[in-house]
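Sample entry was shown:

___
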Amino acid sequence: MDGNGDDHFSQPDPAFPSGAFDLYSQADSYQGPRSGMQALDLNSQVDEFPAFSSYADILRSDHGGVARGGGARTPGLRVAHNGGGDSRGGGATRGGGASADKGRGAGGSRGCGAARSRGGGANRVGGTGGSRGRGRATRNLFIGSASAGGAAGGGGRGGGRVGGRRRRGGSDHEDYVYADEGYAPEVADGVEVIFPGSSKDPYLILHCRKRNREFVQMMLTLGMYYESYIHKAPRRVASVTGIEWVTETLSNPTSCYNMFRMSCPLFNQLHDLLVDSYGLRATRDMSTVEALGMFLWILGAPQSLRQVEDRFVRSLETISRTFDKVLGTVLKLAVHNIRPQDPEFKTVHKRLLNPRFAPYFNNCIGAIDGTHVPVVVPSEKVMQYTNRHGYTSQNVLAICDFDMRFTFVVSGWPGSVHDMRVFSDAIEKYGDKFPHPPTGKFYLVDSGYPNRPGYLSPYKGTKYHLPEFRNGPMPRGMQETFNYAHSSLRNVIERSFGVLKMKWRILMGIPSFPMHKQSKIIVACMAIHNFIRENSVADREFDLYDCDENGVPMPGTSNRGGGETSTQVEEEDSNMNAFRDEIAHALYNRSR
């Protein structure tokens, strides 16, 4: 980042389906929470019954002025009245009177004494003989009768049970609704509630089924919320608390390095830097020392969140929240330390002053390469993230100097993407932040990149990698001599990747974190890598590769060959080709 807040690492365009997080802009692509279920307010469902303000009003109503508009059907409820006209009160409707219809009177009605009566008496309940049971609920539920239901219905099909039993066999039915709430016997006499399941009201059937599903979903959501946030397990009492374990580990130099991947003085120095300059803060239950120790333990061991839960005796929620907070502060550190220490590249590194390379590579300022970091991705993205080695990964582009410090990084690209595509996108999208080589300076790149101004590549089709020279004859001819020197210097990027992955073992296989968090973890590891390199006098992994500058790191640390395919071919610059030939002739003539 420059003085205006720019930094030197990022990811591909969010439009590209990589799920990476843009670390240049430090702007999360957070989308608000998805719309969840809304609480179902039964009393608010009054649109189906415009004559009333709520169901309770319907149940409490006993007046005769609820006309149905000439006998028209109203979904949900029917009210029997004794008053007349074309309403469902009297006359030729289901009300009382002497009509031959289904009223409460005589004749062929379903009132008292009729052979085909469902009730008997004055309220369709309390019948005898061939009635279907006193208070029998088949398709209809009768509320507010003078009697409460059924012993006299011996001839009925259901035995006179009230409240939602299916008439055949008395079995429960999922569509029946009980009308216990809001029941007011003194005012609701004669109210008939039509059950869902009645062939008379198909619209009501669909409406009630949908409402039942919404209610079940709402209850499931409430149950999950209760189990997660209200009904928690009792707090565990640890024999050794997290802070006690971290303190004890820091007191032992060997344990400190093995657990936190750095010495105790360096741990304290990193802790003070994050607290003083990058906003790391303690919480009510956890100190900053414990939080940093937990973070480094996860990155270095690595440890699953379940193991961290057991070791620190913390809930998964606390662990995840603490990890994210420390990760954010380390990313702020990355903004300032993943960049060239000499932006103008005026100093010639001592490695280049070796007579084997000087003076032909004095203008070299670093090396560029990519590395695959294994990750766990959703099943629908497996094909996109599967690299040529057959596993899912992110293709991470990085630039380093000859001190094995990273000066630029782009994370988040799928493993199937060619190195050159990642490189081209980085220059195009982050051209103002990319550490471009000044005129006359150049980076070392492998054969997957074209030879063009500022980027010197080896001869293609010729032996190049160091193991090929170590396990076979020494270089012969001009091109092999150049490639051997080129590979020996460019090996610094492979050694940097080797140190990075040996120290932070989470990069050997990042667990199933969200994809944007996986990209952040990669950059955070590089930031701590640079911090250790800049501040540590001695470090086990760095010392290993400092002693053998031609050392070959573990397999898979870099993308040898330049990527997944060789289909992306770009034109090389003729002037850069001539410059390469000039160096090759000089090196070959000196070796003879």
About this structure: The longest strand covers residues 364-374.
